[in-house]
Protein: DUF5009 domain-containing protein
Organism: Phocaeicola coprocola CAG:162
Amino acid sequence: MNQRALALDALRGYAIITMVLSATIISSILPGWMSHAQTPPPEHIFNPEIPGITWVDLVFPFFLFAMGAAFPFSIGRHAEKGRSKLMLCYDAIKRGIQLTFFAIFIQHFYPYVISSPQDLRSWLLAITCFMVLFPMFMRIPYQLPEKIHKIIKLSAYLIAIIMLVTTQYANERSFSLYFSNIIILILANMAIFGSLLYIFTIHNRLLRICILILLGALMISKDIESSWVEHYLNISPIPWLYRFEYLEYLFIVIPGSFAGEILKKWLSENHENIYPTKVRTGVALLSILVSVILVNLYCLYNRFLEANLIITIILLTTGYLLLKGKPKTDIRTLWYKLFDLGSFFLLLGLFIEPFQEGIKKDYATFSYFFVTSGLAFMTLIIFNIICDYFKCVRSTRFLIMSGQNPMIAYVATDLLIYPILNILGITPLLEYFYSSPWLGFLHGIILTSLTVFITMFFTRIKWYWRT
């Protein structure tokens, strides 16, 4: 590999940063397109009957897509070094279990879970949780025997378990395996099942696609009453960790693995000319890709379905003509392959949009999986143009470094920033931001910026959380 996939890091960073932003803006005073489409402001009451998506609904699928795109780099690298499939499966299951523990641990130590109203004890416990996660998920940056590293890690897990079972929680809550962060829990399931699927189809994309088709058939049939599919698939031997419906997100992770394979193959090759002869080609494609994303978000949210389909086809056709027939050593070849697959998934999602009463994140529809996968392909190309073609590494460093340390970015706001602001007595001042929509958005920008700064700091000193 002659260079790191900066575009993939940037995509992952974009996903985690916008995830933090969407959780910290004061959405109750902002327009509906600043929230999940199915939980509109101001009450944010979940309504599964509302079709459409917003930019907030792209956050999680983009992260899942990036996870799948990383499989060829992580799993593929170990496979190329001769690691057996059995050991690769062990790694996948181990990673999934670690992420599950992470999901349970952090969920129990959000300050609002420990006490209501929040108090000094809850804030200090949240900060303690954040600190314990370091020896648990990072390799201590000192030259120590491997045995010592394992002892430190196991000790951190032991401390975490003691904290979980001895802490008094608010509202008579007690420790429960079923009380976990659902986003991380789904990622844990994808780390296991997505990795296993990739391991056994690493050289057979067709088989990977066939398994997805079979999975789709089961998904369609699982809600048919009194069927064997409903009877067996709705039963879980470990319901606190696994449920069959979590597997639906493989329809985003696996397309991501296709993108990762294309990107990995390109990076592993020697290219005499990796740049288009004309800069305006990159600018033109960038404009098309951004337009595709914005048009789909605007039209699907406002339900301009026919107009969206027509405009999308025109934009995709223009992009196809711009990229078609380029030399294999030209970076436009990479863009074309990603664009080709992204266009397929996007159009597939738009064609089946009327199915299941319109595109929805919750409860997730097939249209949602395919549309967001297609838009993720387009976003990956955007970051490849910006980071690799235009070499805007310095200006995108906050994305890249956040993408290299996403676990810290995910919890820093709730387990570190909010507790510190509360201890310092600053949190009451934040109520000023509830007075207008712009200030409500600025509230999220400030907290997200603090999260990014903290994440970049730990990334710079190479304190990475890894599973």
The chain has a mean pLDDT of 93. The longest helix spans residues 56-80. Residues 6-41+49-460 form one domain.
